[in-house]
Specification:
about 40% helix, binds 3-isopropylmalic acid, globular, binds magnesium ion, single chain, ten-stranded mixed sheet, 12 strands, 12 helices, alpha/beta, Isopropylmalate Dehydrogenase, two-stranded antiparallel ribbon
């Protein structure tokens, strides 16, 4: 029987629809090549939909809940007050669907230019796992005497043992299939209460994984080590806020936001996982053909890995790397090819079975695929 997966597609705003269209072309090619099918429901969500209807995540939640996975473009628009879509849709989805682990590979692909002088792909191949439902992103806090010179703002950070434990356990399992090194990134010298809990959980869970070596780096020091000695890191686990910040730095190292990608994984099968590029909606270049679709296409690869289509995931990653490595620049007109041309080239390589998986021998996607989806 043909394998079939039911997915929701949320193209969103700005460049989201154009990069997601490329990812769907590549998905067509992968289905033909690897003999599976998808049932796709494309849903309107984002700024236009919000401005027309006032609807945010609540409205689509029931439509998404039974899907096998969600492919997400980007959200954000200058006409909508900052925070409304980010909190009302993206964070709401991550929290309500308990997408506990935000998995962000930081991998410099062969041929891709990096601003870090002398950095080579062998030295830059890590995965940052960002806790995705708690910390400072729970939206709890209060303001007193607002608008007066005595204004007081309190912003809380929520850290639960259960929330930390599930993401730490996932990170150990990921490390086990890789170079067997797990780094906790936090700020335990200052954020003592949260820091102690994170450290304790890493120590306790680590007893179940004696093969994995554990390391610790403060988040400020991480900003120094990440660009200079990325080879030190295999899997990095960190809290929501620190993860948000250091993964942008990671994206720079690996060639820019156009290349970086992520998986928002529900680890207990209670709701679908969501796959998205790290870049935003970039309204200034929307429709101009200057957006790099690689991040979105690699998020498709992560989704395929998660759905158990490991061979397709590897082929999509390899084909993307081949095309990316040949671009003179990774953004703007200087790329030499338009958004849709890049997508078509990648799709063609996948469709014709020409993807050279030796380009990504230690495929992260392969590792993700080897973690049983039911256990993710
Ligand atoms: C990210 C983004 C989001 C976040 C925003 C858009 C809500 O910065 O995915 O890193 O803060 O997590
Ligand atoms: Mg961010």
């Amino acid at each position: 029987m043909t394998r079939s997966h039911s997915i929701a597609v949320l193209p969103g705003d700005g460049i989201g629809p154009e990069v997601v269209a490329c990812a769907l072309d590549v998905l067509d090619a992968a289905e033909q090549r690897f003999g599976f099918t998808t049932e796709r429901s494309e849903l309107a969500a984002g700024a236009n939909h919000y401005l027309a209807t006032g609807e945010l995540f609540d409205a689509v939640e029931p439509l998404l809940r039974d899907e096998d996975a969600i492919l997400f473009g980007s959200m954000g628009d200058p006409r909508v007050t900052p925070g409304i879509l980010e909190r009302g849709f993206i964070l709401e989805m991550r929290q309500r669907f308990q997408q506990a682990a935000n998995v962000r590979p930081v991998r410099l692909y062969p041929g891709v230019p990096t601003p870090i002088a002398g950095l080579t792909p062998e030295r830059c191949e890590m995965v940052i796992v960002r806790e995705n439902t708690e910390g400072a992103y729970v939206g709890r806090g209060s303001t007193v005497h607002a608008g007066t010179p005595h204004a007081v703002a309190m912003q809380e950070s929520l850290n639960t043992r259960a929330g930390i434990e599930r993401v730490v356990d996932f990170s150990f399992r990921l490390a086990l299939g890789r170079r067997r090194r797990l780094t906790l990134c936090h700020k335990t010298n200052i954020l003592v209460a949260a820091g102690q809990l994170w450290q304790q959980v890493v120590a306790d869970v680590g007893e179940r994984y004696p093969e994995v070596e554990v390391d610790y780096v403060h988040v400020d020091a991480m900003c120094f080590h990440l660009p200079l000695t990325p080879e030190r890191f295999d899997v990095v686990v960190t809290d929501n806020l620190f993860g948000d910040i250091i993964t942008d730095l990671g994206a720079v190292i690996q060639g820019g936001l156009g290349v970086a990608t992520s998986a928002n994984l529900n680890l207990d099968g209670s709701a679908p996982s969501m796959f998205e590029a790290i870049h935003g909606s970039a309204p200034d270049i929307a429709g101009s053909g200057r957006a790099n679709p690689a991040g979105a296409i690699l998020s498709l690869a992560l989704m395929l890995g998660h759905l158990g289509e490991g061979d397709a995931a590897r082929a999509v990653e390899a084909a993307t790397v081949e095309v990316l490595g040949g671009l003179p620049a990774l953004a703007g007109e200087e790329m030499g090819l338009s958004t849709s041309q890049i997508g078509s080239r990648i799709a063609e390589i996948v469709r014709e079975g020409r993807a050279d998986t030796a380009l990504v021998p230690d495929s992260l996607l392969g590792v993700l695929a080897s973690l049983e989806p039911s256990r993710l």
